[in-house]
Amino acid sequence: MRRLPVYILIDTSGSMNGEPIESVKVGLESMLSSLRNDPYALETVWISIITFDREARCILPLTALDELQLPQIDVPESGPTMTGAALSTLLDRVRHEVKLSNAEQKGDWMPLLFLLTDGKPSDTQLYNEMIPKIRQERFGGVIACAAGPKAKTEPLRQLTDNVYSLDTLDSAGFRKFFKWVSDTIGVGNRSVGATDELILPPPPEEVNMII
């Protein structure tokens, strides 16, 4: 069975400390529960989580859904948002983990990328350098979410056309967002190979598309 790699990048800068990151954890648990109720996703979806604050770190390498346990997600009391470093780490992981097709085997499906941030990149130069590299990489879909009133959508629009905003940082909002992520993964899981374009399901009313 070919894998569908899913990479989730989560902003863990100081502004996410407290209720916001606890709400993200609730949302992630809800997402995993939903995906595990989908037999096809259970067979094909593999997930990786990369966090970023003053540095980027892969806290969960690409792992099969049925073997996945959420790791501890720590947030410093303060610090910058190194989104560029997160994208650099992502590319390293994708090139290391995603299997390419060759004469002997079919490789993985094109990976999906979800990026969640409540601010803007602190490492602007590196972020701008990474944008064309991400766009050149063969992702099946890149979805970015600007969470909370201080999140900036403009940098995300440079990265992808699929930019959404989440007005609140509470558990109800993140639960709805990650339920939509699980729906998107489910759609991607069934459409990969049939089309080059990921058709996103309608977002809940808490998640607004940025046009």
Using only C-alpha atoms, the radius of gyration works out to 16 Å
The chain-level mean pLDDT equals 90
Count the beta strands: 7
Largest sheet: 7 strands, mixed
H/E topology pattern: EHHEEHEHEHEHE
- Quote the distance from N terminus to C terminus: 37 Å
**Weakly predicted, low-confidence segments:** none
Walkthrough of the structure:
The protein is an alpha/beta fold and 211 residues long. The chain is built from six helices and seven strands; from the N terminus they run βααββαβαβαβαβ. Strands 3-2-1-4-5-6-7 form a seven-stranded mixed sheet, with helices on both faces. β5, α5 (154-159) and β6 form a beta-alpha-beta unit. The longest helix is centred in the last third of the chain and has 21 residues, at 171-191. The protein is globular, with a radius of gyration of 16 Å. The N and C termini lie far apart (37 Å).
Characteristic terms for this protein:
211 residues; alpha/beta; 7 strands; 22% strand
Spell out the blueprint of helices and strands:
Elements: E1 4-11, H1 19-36, H2 39-44, E2 45-52, E3 56-64, H3 83-97, E4 112-117, H4 124-136, E5 141-147, H5 154-159, E6 162-166, H6 171-191, E7 207-209
Parallel strand pairs: 1-2, 1-4, 4-5, 5-6
Antiparallel strand pairs: 2-3, 6-7
Helix pairs in contact: 1-6, 3-4
Summarize, please.
This protein has 211 residues and is of the alpha/beta class.
